[in-house]
Design brief:
The structure holds 2 protein chains of 2 kinds. Chain A is mainly α. Chain A has helices spanning about 1-30, 40-60, 65-95, 115-120, 120-155, 160-170, 175-195, 205-230, 235-245, 250-260, 260-275, 280-285, 310-315, 320-354, and strands at about 295, 300. In chain A, strand 1 and strand 2 form a beta hairpin. Classes of the chains: A mainly alpha, B mainly alpha. Chains A and B meet through helix 1, helix 2, helix 3, helix 5 and helix 6 of A and helix 1, helix 4, helix 5, helix 6 and helix 7 of B.
Chain lengths: ~350, ~290
Amino acid sequence: MNENTSGKKALSMALLIVGFVLMLAALYFDITKNYAGLGAMRGMFLVLGALMVLAGIYFIPTVLHHRAIINFIFLFPLIFTFIVTVIIPMFVGIFYSFTDWNGVFYTKMVGIENYQAMFKDPAFMWSLLITVLFVIVNMIMVNLVAFLLALLCTTKLKGVGFFRAAYFLPNLIGGIVLGYIWQFIFSNVLTKILNSPHSALATTKTAFIAIIVVYVWQYAGYIMLIYINGLATVPKDVLEAAQIDGASDIATLFKIKIPMIAATFTICTFLTLTSAFKQFDVNLALTNGGGTVRGFMGKRLSNGTQMIALNIYNTAFARDQYGYAQAKAILFFIILACVSLLQVRISNKREVEM
Amino acid sequence: MKMKTSRAVILTIIAVLLAIYILFPFALVVLNSFKTQAAIVQNPISATGASFKQFASNLSAVVNNKNFSFWRAFGSSAVVTIISLVLLAVFGGMSAWVICRNKTKWSTVIYMTFISSMIIPFQVVMLPLIATFREVGKYIGLGMNGTLPGLIFAYCGFGGAMTVFILTGFIKGIPYELEEAAAIDGCSPEGTFFRIIFPLLKPTIVTVTILNGMWIWNDYLLPSILLGQNNPNKTLPVAVQAFVGSFVKSWDMILTAALLAMIPMIVIFLIAQKHIMDGMVQGAIK
């Protein structure tokens, strides 16, 4: 037992020392900018050193603190990646939104200029406007269609399993692929069927409707599954009692089923709301934001169907205005956070009342 | 009784019509992959001009196209998805267990940070993320931008919050006596986790893996900005986008590529249909 402890101690010490030396060596190469020769391997030194230090900590022979050590080691990987990919970029991003950042460096702080600029930018205001419109229409349409599909799929239908799977299928495929498939349908197939020379994607208004059609088609099957799950929680005896009392199907639906699955409605409105706000893939592949708008805030726009996420993307990558794009993203975040909190609050209140 | 049957017939007809509408785009993709561009443009809804020979020629043109390079993109997607899912399941389980079983101020802070980070839209961290990765890569000499390990690292960071959230909910329901008994029998804390808790987590791990898997496999934005359109290791959605960009309106090529990109997901769905549908629902209502 004693020998085991001292062996462990030696191992732990050795790992800690070698690990720290390797990490220090990596740091040395970083600071001296010695990137050639051994310096080229500084990344490997760092990772190896960090792993050895972690292993060294693990082997520290202590009974008292062993639990705390395990807690640290268990939390480390996820927290570390989380900090590097979410927390640091989040705060760096808030800072950059006040600068003239071009993606690589910034020359000066510009205060709230970026934030002021976007409210005077017709193209951005248009994107914001149609995103809100899209979210509202989409939320209503997806929930309505999904709920009707769920009702259909909870009747005693033959092959109901097949229908559920079929309705859910579009949700499996990524928005990029779906966007191109529907682009083909709108510009080649529908024009053939309707015998019209104009694709629905050619005019802004119909292109906007096209995005909604594709999105409802893709998303309704998923929301339907959640409604089916909610409907399954309505107790059978309550439904039977209603039937015995002679309640019609419609009365049962509005007086029993819908009030009883209020929580499901909350989840589904939340999901459709947030996902519609962040919509990017279908928008990019289907219309790429194109479409002319004559006379919006006194300007002619060419981004008729560009949602806010795509607008941010293009501001950064097509126009290289990273600081400005970042400010837009921060505003986007604030809107999204407010709307989701509001929605959850309203729904919770309504649920209690029901 | 008669009334009932006629109603069932009407409902079935509605269900079938809806299924046809919803599956129609998929049928069109399959059908037109068997045709030449000229035949597609002439009539996209008829089977005239469709032949296996044409399908084989479309297929080989698409697979060997250097903007698409299907097998390579498929390999990248598979590697990124599988490794990210394994890491998320293991690390997520470890973190969730520690957060759940240590009722200290710190574990609450960590948990709340994870939860509140879930409403951050990707657009907010997208631009600084590239900068962070680039700087880290430059100074530390680890290629984070443009490499698959960097992408996997980012998926662990972004998927962590949701994974921990769902797993924590489940671990709360596991009786603590189980762990106490293991400790009395001389099991170390890490042993308790890997031998007792982790196996119990299996059903929830399946849910989490399905949710994360659907997201990672289909994700376009993150790989497109981290890897770039011209990266030889680009994932499948990025490859589709790059491929379509190089073939304006060549529907024979585009639709065959779409078919290839869809097949892996549809095959997995056919195998694990029930698990996937249950997993998507369980993940949403938690």
